[in-house]
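Colleagues,

For the teaching module next term, I've prepared a clean inverse folding example: a structure given as tokens, and then the sequence designed for it. I'd like students to try predicting residues themselves before seeing the answer, so please don't circulate the second half yet.
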């Protein structure tokens, strides 16, 4: 059933982006989740590759959760495709994303994946910026 929604959500993302692949929308994370559920990762690649330089605000706001899920699901997709360096970057984005609240479950899961990929690629843990680590271990 998830595979049926991929085309629909892809079209919605394209409309919200207005022709700019560098614009992040709240639907990116939905698309990535559908692709993971359907085990059909190829449609998501088009939205992972470009650098995000703009955020589409809905009603003047953008929820940080959408960015966290975009980064986490993007990391999962890239890991499944054996693009480990790029996946490590996506997990790092999820872990280091500034947040005013306590560390979320998304952040914890991204950190676990970050540790695993870091060990696989480098044989050691690659340290994260200290600013987020203090908040992570205080929770």
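(Answer key — instructors only)
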């Amino acid at each position: 059933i998830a595979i049926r929604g991929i085309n629909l959500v892809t079209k919605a993302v394209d409309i919200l982006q207005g022709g700019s692949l560098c614009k992040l929308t709240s639907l990116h994370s939905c698309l990535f989740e559908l692709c993971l559920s359907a085990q059909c990762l190829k449609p998501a690649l088009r939205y992972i590759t470009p650098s995000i330089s703009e955020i589409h605000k809905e009603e003047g706001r953008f929820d940080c959760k959408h960015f966290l899920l975009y980064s986490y699901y993007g990391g999962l997709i890239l890991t499944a495709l054996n693009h480990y360096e790029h996946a490590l970057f996506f997990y790092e984005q999820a872990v280091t994303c500034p947040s005013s609240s306590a560390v979320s479950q998304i952040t914890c899961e991204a950190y676990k994946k970050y540790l695993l990929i870091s060990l696989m690629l480098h044989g050691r843990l690659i340290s994260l910026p200290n600013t987020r680590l203090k908040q992570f271990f205080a929770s």
